[in-house]
Amino acid sequence: MLALLLQLDLPTASNFAPMVDRLYDFVNIVSLVSFVGIVGAIVYFVLRYRRKGKEPEETPYIEGHPLLEASVMFILFIFVMIFFYWGWVDYKKMMHPPPNAMEVSVTGRQWLWSFEYVNGRRADNELVLPKGVPVKLVMNSTDVIHSFYVPAFRVKQDVLPGTYTFLWFVAEQVGTYDVFCTEFCGTGHSAMLAKIKVVEPEEYAKWQKTWEWEKQLGLAPTAGAVEKPAGAPGGAPAPAGPTAMASPAERGEKLYKEKGCNACHSVDGSTLVGPSLKGIFGHEVELEGGKKAAVDENYIRESLTDPNAKLVKGFQPMMPTFKGTLNDDEISSLVAYIKSLQ
Ligand code: CUA
What is the pTM assigned to this prediction? Predict the structure, then answer.
């Protein structure tokens, strides 16, 4: 109610929007009631205890009231804990994407947003998504810190170089929504805008189908991309040549052979010099020293750039680092390939 009042006509366009607004309203109402109460008390006391003509100069000495003070603090503490617990419960929901979520990779760079779908379709500054489907964004930056913010969805997440961060939501209304960068990232920061276009699932399927036909016919890889904003250099370094429209997993498979990963890591479950890559994604591995690690995007990134940071139990620290020899796009492609080896 208040959120609506304060945010004017901001649409509630995701599964999280009503949830965030409820907490926002609650905090606002509690603040408003306290504000009116405190100001009311001040005004009342100022009038009630104002100096009246004939009274002596000296004011009486008033002792504190420990019980009253303690109860005020206790009530405040209860409210703070309600805010905290409520926020924590909501935050946990926002941090745990459902396993069936549709993935899209997001790259932030000075000063535009690049998107890539699992099938290899790329676009700059426009993300088309189906309505009612959980979407998980796997995000990375090629330069400085950016932040991906969709007010209509009430979601925001920093996008960092050298690591992956995640964001998920279900878009629940057809329409076009603004994406802002909310971390100052250089002179083009304010122009680092994108649109999310939410369409009916059937329309989305058709849109992807058209692109897949184009892919088979070898047509332009930039189909679907929109104009880059003024001042944005280059844009996505779209791969050229016959792999221009390859999916990330296909590019990863090629790299796996080119970079010689296949000399030590099988993809069929057999153990060579290093552990097999088959079926590891999304599971836990046991490390030397007894600890366990979950194999996710950041685990694979670390294994490529700092291979001895987490050594799988029973293997020797022999893997060379690929830091500096693989760029972000190549690392993401290898992640996508390993993900596909289920
Ligand atoms: Cu990117 Cu501000």
Answer: 0.75
